[in-house]
Amino acid sequence: MDKQQVLDNLITGVVVVDAALNVAYLNTAAESLLGVSRVKSQGQGLDCLFGERPGLGRFVETLATGQGFIDADCDLGQVHVELAVSVLESDARYLIIELTPIDQLKRLSQDAFHQVQQQASQEILRGLAHEIKNPLGGLRGAAQLLALELTAAQREYTDLILAQVDRLTALVDRLLGPKTGPQRSLVNIHQVLERVRTLVSLQAPEGIRILRDYDPSLPDMALDPGQIEQALLNVVQNAVQALGSQGQVVLRSRVASGVTLQGSRHRMVARIDIEDDGPGVPDKLKDTLFYPLVTGRADGSGMGLAIAQSLVALHGGRIELDSKPGRTLFTLFLPMEDSQ
User: Fold this and answer.
1) Which residues 6+ apart lie within 8 Å of 175 measured at CB?
2) What is the rounded distance in angstroms from the CA atom of residue 273 to the CA atom of residue 320?
3) Which InterPro entries match (predicted)?
4) Are 318 and 112 spatial neighbours (Cβ–Cβ below 8 Å)?
5) CATH class of the domain at 3-104
6) pLDDT at 84
């Protein structure tokens, strides 16, 4: 495999400079981070990339001593990066500079943390479900036996008991999530979004508009259409409910590249945005909103977003939240191909 192709597929920016601190190479990620052209930068001084930041003296010292350094928060103007500098092992006349966006590091850390938290909450729920379902089964059996001894009029009460037992059992099953993995087939994600849009529009107040902004270049994807439809439905319904009687929801699809999901990097993923112009998610709920039984509404069950995150995770993806007053954005990332 071509070395340049490998470097260009990294999400970390890589710059190589010679002993005169002139640029010998930079990869695609570095071009994007620094806002420069690879062709135009080659042969130029390092200051054309960094200006006075982080100080060229440290690069000269690394060349002289062979001792690299790390700047954990290097301000490059429009972006903060972790900057790591070392001597190229195969040729000490060159330095290799690695640039990792700080927000990217935070996202990877948060992704790992959320995975652990989700697994922990699922284990707790399994134990809780077992403790609940056992007495519910006994209660249902007793109600059925009691109904045999009652008149038709009296059986109204046992029917009520049975209905409530079934409702609680269904709630527990929802807490545990799907019993089987995704049954994948090639799916047009826009057809799924349109079904969700139709369903939600039928129930939404007249003052709410649901708009579309689709990328027609998105190819068909290997998904479980029922599970993904349920995940999207839960998120869109949440957005509509947050608006009250008036507002706007936008369904948007895009292709994103070089995204890391569940520890694996994917060349391309589908990015599905559900954006509303509502009041926003309270700060105290942002870190726990996808946990079971967490809700910001008095009449909410706290299950919709937790189930959505679980279903998307089964497909190797994740849901992210970015919210402030006047703009709440839920983003679903779904792999479009095998991880790299």
Assistant:
1) 125, 128, 129, 292, 303
2) 10
3) HATPase_C_sf, HATPase_dom, His_kinase_dom, HisK_dim/P_dom, HisK_dim/P_sf, PAS, PAS-like_dom_sf, PAS_fold
4) no
5) alpha beta
6) 85
